[in-house]
Amino acid sequence: MVAISKYTKKCKDTIGGIKDIYLMPFVKYNRWEIQSVGLNLTAFPTTTITPFECIGSYTQTSEFENGSIFFNQSISFQLNEVYDVMDVQNLLIADYRIIVKTNNNKFLMLGVYNGLKAIVNNNSGTTKGEFNGFKVDFSGKEENPMLLISDLGSLGFAISETGFNYILNFNID
Description:
two-stranded antiparallel sheet; disordered C terminus; 47% strand; mainly beta
């Protein structure tokens, strides 16, 4: 841990935004099955995650409620040309956990203990150069901040090669 008194101003050499997300249905686990040290995720049950290339961003804000601290987590991303690939309204049916890969190649997990809920917007744009597709916003409230993941494979995350079908059925063989 870096002592604040030793922190010096850094040069801006990072890139904002996210380039990939990994979606997984929220499954209620016992607290001992998910472990972290500080902000680093150190243990998680073996899980298959579904990757998406996307353009997006995330935010996390702290909130005080009845003497407790909570973290409001949200992620917003765009999926274009998915009309004939999947029924995105099915994202509204369940809660999810999401791993984001930032443009700085860092992995963060949102919705670790409570999951995230989706809101979907369909945008047509007015010209060829404007976005045409679905904007998906996930949000949730957690007792802990987002957790860093050093290596997906070492924590038991298996990346789905087949993805899922158009109704978001994650049990594809």
